[in-house]
Amino acid sequence: MATPASNTMVQVTIDGQSISVPASATVLEAAQQAGIMIPTLCYLKDINQTGSCRVCLVEIEKARGLQPACVYPVSDGMVVRTNTPLIRETRKSVLELILSDHPQDCLSCVRSDSCELQSLSKQLGVENLPYPGEVSDYTLDLSSPSIERSSDKCIKCRRCVSTCQKIQHVSALGVSQRGFNTQVAPVFRHTLDEVNCITCGQCINACPVGALREKDEIQKVWQAIADPVQHVIVQVAPSVRAALGEEFGLDPGTPVGHRIPAALKHLGFDKVFDTGFTADLTIMEEGNEFLDRLQGGGALPMITSCSPGWVKYCEHHYPDLLKNLSTAKSPQQMFGALAKTYYADISGIDPRNIYSVSVMPCTAKKYERQRAEHTNRGYEGYDDVDAVLTTRELARMLKQTGLDFLRLSEEPFDAPFGIGTGAGINFGATGGVMEAALRTVYETATNQPLGNIEFLSLRGMEGIREAHVDLPGVGAVHVAVVHGISNARDLLEKVKSGEADYHFIEIMACPGGCIGGGGQPLINAQQRMTLPEDYRIMRTRALFAESQDLSLHKSHDNPNIKLIYEKYLEHPLSEKSHYLLHTHYQARPKYTAQQWVAQDRDHEDLDILVPWQHAHEPHPHEPHPEHLVPNPFAYPDYENTQPSLPESP
Amino acid sequence: MNPGQYEIAIDPQWSTAIDTIVAANAAQPGSLIQILEQTQKEIGYLPENVQAYLSEKLDIPLSEIYGVTTFYALFNTEPVGQHTISVCMGTACYVKGAGDIVAEFERQLDIKAGETTQDGKFTLEACRCLGACGLAPVLTIDGHVHGRLTSADVRNLLENYE
Ligand code: SF4
Ligand code: SF4
Ligand code: SF4
Ligand code: FES
Ligand code: FES
User: Torsion angle of alpha carbons B29, A160, A235, A381, nearest 10°?
Assistant: First the structure.
């Protein structure tokens, strides 16, 4: 491990070139500075530095044998060679050994063209594939609504394991067994949906090969579009526009929002809407809920609930904090609920014939749409959202049509969900929800215009950020923003121990927020080393550029938001809003497959109900049970899973 | 463990034993392997719920504990019988009919190699060369070596341990 914060420089010679590098650098970093990219496979900047694959071997004078550059620290006067016949041969045989236990499926593999193993084999000049040796065990795990895992393509680099452990503090994937039998999998050979995986997809973004990928919903969407009966609508999340361009060769940080409506129309969607609109709606409900809790003595700190990965983590690991989660649905689910009620009403279309698709930067949104609270709704028993495509899947669909994305002209999103304000668009970056909420909370609570709408201390990539905001007439509120579950956990432990005291916390499961989501275009290991900046900062800049372009920057100023309250929802937190736009959470065991999972005694209390809704009175809008159609595609309903006690041994 | 979290169903005797072991090792960080060894000695093996219980107690991810218990051959995740029969399947023993001996044990105990009898008396396993090839075919029962065997000896061997 490189020791940080060391300013001393040392002199090293790499392939005859003498350069001065920080004493804390590795040989890999020093070589990069000298303009030499040493090939790597298991190394992932800031995440995985285990020195296990041996693809990066170099020769170091006075050291015995070849050494892995990614973990070898530099020292003064060190002489390194990276290009000798021995090095080339050894790297190639290391790679051939990996390939001997790898399926040769490139033609039909989702990662063909973005696969680091494939490009490495080209780079190292592998021309004859070695005889396939004994092939290790093959598991295809399709259990998760979000993630697909094919162990045959796994090269055991552990990049996913480090990500899941260090960034997300979940450790759903681990390394077990040894030698040839080494497994990278959930514990006890369980499937991903039987463990505490939060479906965030960060492991996919870390994987160099096709062993981990998103659950593909492209075919379903094509089918719906081809069905003449279905009215197929699509919502696009803010952060998609800050990254989709990368799939078409644009640099990270190029905004492409203006091209998205035309692109989706080209695919055949009937209406193209902006999730930014329901992001504004989320702010209206969540902001008012916050004021309600603040002034009415509700559970504080209130914590945002729009990141389904975070919500699932909270349900597995912090059930005692579920009462602190905002009951407001995420923008995706608010949109889904309105699409089949309000939108169906005003457009005169039977909700059963509306097929609602969303394009999201996030694999957890696939899980979220299948949660029991969001499926089998209304008298008709429809799902609020029928399919979720990640940014990557949308790019694949566009590529399938042969459309020249870069030549598309600008078109607006469709009414009535076409306008999002800058506040709603900023949802896509860490801190954006809090900033948007503060703007609305301030003006709602004080009835005064907010002068400076930018809360700069809440922006940036610092793991935990905070601000004090004075609400004249109400008091000072202390807010915090965290991204990445590891940071969230650090913060929550402080909250629980009383060391930190906040009124309102924004938590996003993915580092950087949605712009860094598990469904976004992949940034490979080499790009992570060579891009001029962290790609999340570049994407955030693109997102802010999109929001700057808009004329309105406060959710409550959105004219369509005003209209929907006037025409349909009445006011924030109204009864109708509650039925359509709020939800509830439940404690979940970490390991559901286990016979040995016992229910906790006070679990009963944890089914969080909307405080102003009486537990046993049926809600006027609630569907009559006889009208409920069982939904064959529903994700298993945890509420009905009652783990039983094992017999004592 | 956080309040409200699902608890792990575990025999109270086991959890008390584990609590004591964990407390005794609390002073030394990084003593996971030691704790696992002592737990196995106490309980006999390391079933899934024991590993999960330890994970909660020690605040170490279950996947990490599972990684350790499957990495070292010394840990058993299945119960082991009172007596462990290890039949050598090294080349010399194999050539001299170790396979028949294993088959005979399997028949008489009504289990497969790697399993434990219903009554918890015997665990049967195959192992690598024991370094006693001169006595091939060789097996050990609870560490005692028996050599130059044929499948006809199986009944006698078992009777000694009845
Ligand atoms: S993971 Fe890479 S090398 Fe393997 S089949 Fe897919 S594209 Fe080919
Ligand atoms: S989806 Fe997230 S939680 Fe699940 S295994 Fe991958 S990184 Fe871990
Ligand atoms: S699943 Fe992917 S990231 Fe994880 S160890 Fe296998 S190849 Fe590496
Ligand atoms: S050992 Fe250096 S990249 Fe794998
Ligand atoms: S082969 Fe059995 S003891 Fe060596």
Answer: -80
